[in-house]
Design goal:
about 200 residues, 4-stranded mixed beta sheet, about 15% helix
């Protein structure tokens, strides 16, 4: 009986030794895991080089928003200030020469009242621009307003997002003569007041 107890004691000691601490005496088994900190890279959008780089959306063309001040508009680097025009007109703001097919209307204080697209180049994110058809515009914007009178007794349709607006004018078409094949001849974006879709004088 004593021999069996001795054997059991040896087995217990052997088992304890198998699960004992390492022979070097280290008792700290904590492993520190370090996760590399991700490098934050800021994506910088290059400034538009020409009119075809400008994206049209309700209330804005490219980085220029309707309603900003003259100084804010000049800070974009896309405008010249106090440009002399024909018949004694002076434009508080005018797009730089490489931005053909876009215009800007200013208030008396020089702030931006409206921005317009008069020729092909600038388009919306949905691919709508001057030359698109009414059918194209309807397909791109299911929430488009019904066609109504705009411009100089012409026909237009509008999209509103919050206080921002975009209007599409359809050439010489009127409300009674417009067709799905009628083409966009002018686009205007505003903030607050809906676009009138007309240009005249200075």
């Amino acid at each position: 009986m004593k021999r069996m107890l001795g054997t059991v004691a040896v087995l217990i000691l052997f088992t304890s030794a198998c699960g004992s601490e390492p022979s070097n005496g280290d008792t700290d088994f904590t492993v520190e895991q370090t996760t590399p900190t991700p490098t934050v890279t800021q994506e910088t959008t290059p400034p538009p080089a020409g009119a075809s780089d400008l994206v049209v959306r309700p209330g804005a063309i490219g980085p220029v928003k309707a309603g900003i001040t003259k100084d804010e508009a000049l800070a974009t680097g896309l405008f010249d200030a106090d440009v002399a025009g024909a018949e004694g007109c002076t434009f508080a703001l005018q797009w730089k020469k490489q931005f053909t097919g876009v215009d800007v209307l200013t208030r008396q204080d020089g702030s931006v009242a409206a921005l317009g697209v008069t020729a092909g180049g600038p388009e919306t994110e949905e691919g709508i621009g001057v030359g698109s058809t009414l059918a194209d515009v309807k397909a791109a914007y299911p929430e488009l307003s019904p066609v109504s009178e705009a411009g100089f007794d012409q026909a237009g349709a509008f999209l509103t997002v919050g206080d921002d607006h975009i209007g599409f004018l359809f050439g010489d078409a009127t409300v009674s003569t417009i067709k799905d094949s009628s083409k966009v001849s002018f686009i205007e974006v505003t903030n607050g007041k809906r676009p009138e879709l007309m240009r005249s004088g200075c």
